[in-house]
Amino acid sequence: MNKVTRVIVLKYGGSAMEDSAKVAEILAEIAGLAKEGWPVVLVHGGGKEISGEMKRRGLKGAFVEGFRVTDEAAMAVVEQVLDGKVNPGIVAKLNEIGGKARGISGRKVFQARKAPPAKADGREVDLVRVGEVERCEVEEVQKALAAGETAVVSPVAQGNDGGAMNLNADVAAAALAGALQAEQLIFLSDVPGLLMNRKDSRTIIPEIRSAELEKLEKEGVISGGMIPKCRSAASALRQGLKKVELVDGRVAGTLTGVVKGQEKAGTVLTL
After folding, report:
1. Contact 212, 226 (CB under 8 A)
2. Which CATH code fits 8-270?
3. How far is CA 186 from CA 1, 183, 244, 266, in A?
4. Domain ranges in the chain?
């Protein structure tokens, strides 16, 4: 099997996936890029669907530092929703609009250990079945890319205890991008980029070095879901990626422009 190089890893999830019209636009862009020969790996989230299904089952959800606290009951929902609903749904849509896509459960890709506790209000919180990626098995992904397909990967991992583990999709995408030595890692989000003031889009930080991220996290500039995004971006940079880009997934055409180098990302993170 020939190894595909110059891979683009996209992470798409969170609130950016909640508007069906915007999702259709992004998937059309991804299909268009693939048709033009760009090898694309899409790591998706599905938080809204997971939260909805948990609510239907009478399960309470909690987030700490941007991570979903995932007990055994929640893990069953996470795997069922991501691998049974969201992943095949994205694959079907990409194929329907003329793309070629292959769905891959993250359990075939990510090997994970239990993540350490997160901190909330000065106390440590056990995230239970939230995982940290130990290694990535990229053979299935490379097979898809070699066949000219977009690899659509869920953020579910095979735990080192034999069970499934929940991965934050940002963490999963960064680990996979590092393992593939991707040309680009792009986080598609529902914000224009990293902001000094979350309530003011004019305070966007166009470029930042990874060494500065820890300071901004301590100051509270980086908080909530932006914490795993920035931490995983720094991890990917340490694995050899030249840059990680934060792109507004709500603006049609932006993704295509960034991939082709015709447009600047909202925020570019470098080592």
Report:
1. no
2. 3.40.1160.10
3. 26, 10, 6, 11
4. 8-270
**Is the dihedral angle over the CA atoms 218, 224, 230, 235 positive or is it negative?**
positive
Hey, what long-range contacts does 244-247 have (CB within 8 A, 24 or more apart)?
Answer: 244/174, 244/185, 244/186, 244/187, 244/268, 244/269, 245/184, 245/185, 245/186, 245/187, 245/269, 246/186, 246/187, 246/189, 246/191, 246/193, 246/194, 247/186, 247/187, 247/188, 247/189, 247/193
188-221 per-position pLDDT tens digit: 988 899 999 988 989 999 999 999 999 999 999 9
* Continuous H helices in the chain: 20-35, 47-56, 72-81, 87-96, 139-146, 169-180, 213-218, 226-238, 254-259
Angle at 226 between CA 13 and CA 250, to 5 degrees: 45
The helix (run of H) or strand (run of E) holding residue 208 is strand 207-209
Q: pLDDT tens for residues 45-104?
A: 999 999 999 999 999 999 999 899 999 999 999 999 999 999 999 999 999 999 999 999
